[in-house]
Amino acid sequence: MTEKKTSAKKELFSWVFAIIFGVIVAFVCREYIFSPVVVKGASMIPTYEDKDVIIVSKMSNIDRFDQVVFKAPYEDEFYIKRVIGLPGDTIEMKDDVLIVNGKKYDEPYVNRAGENPLQNRITENFTLEELTGEKTVPEGFIFVLGDNRLKSADSRHYGLIPIDSILGESKLRIFPFQNIKLF
Fold first, then answer.
1. Is residue 153 one of the residues assigned to a domain?
2. Which of 4, 10, 35, 43 is catalytic?
3. Residue 111, domain CATH
4. Checking CA distances to 80, which of 111, 127, 158, 163 falls within 20 to 30 Å?
5. Catalytic annotation, pick one of 81, 152, 155, 170
6. Is 9 among the residues known to form the active site?
7. pLDDT, tens digit, for every residue of 17-73?
8. DSSP-assigned letters across all residues of 66-115
9. pTM score, two decimals?
């Protein structure tokens, strides 16, 4: 009977150890490697819909046109937007054409379907300096825009985003299942 008790104790200990180890691995992964995030709102349509679930990599290097999740400047929320300007960049929008460092960029990801058929543009003309008072994006900051420009609160409204407020880069949409996509 003592042999059965010892065997049962060993099995119980191995189960407890496995569960604790699994919880620690899950915590470390979520805290330092990746995290699931639920998209809220319409600011990134057509790239993301409201209530899409994405996986955010916390170990990515951020580049221009990446989709990043960051702590909102004025509320206790996380926003997802597209990186348009990196430190040192000049930014201008003219006649719906994005110009970064003097180079024009096509933006195929932008939602160009407006509600008003008479509306010619989806993004107003601006320069970085007009919006922020800065000629270039300062070190330690990025400039972001939503893909649904007509319904996005972004750097045009609340300014530059501190790089240290970035949670990570969107890498994978996992829900809804029929729209799973690797970015």
1. yes
2. 43
3. 2.10.109.10
4. 127
5. 81
6. no
7. 899 988 988 887 777 788 999 999 999 999 999 999 999 999 889 999 999 999 998
8. -EEEEE-SSSS-EEEEEEEE-TT--EEEETTEEEETTEEE--TTS----S
9. 0.84
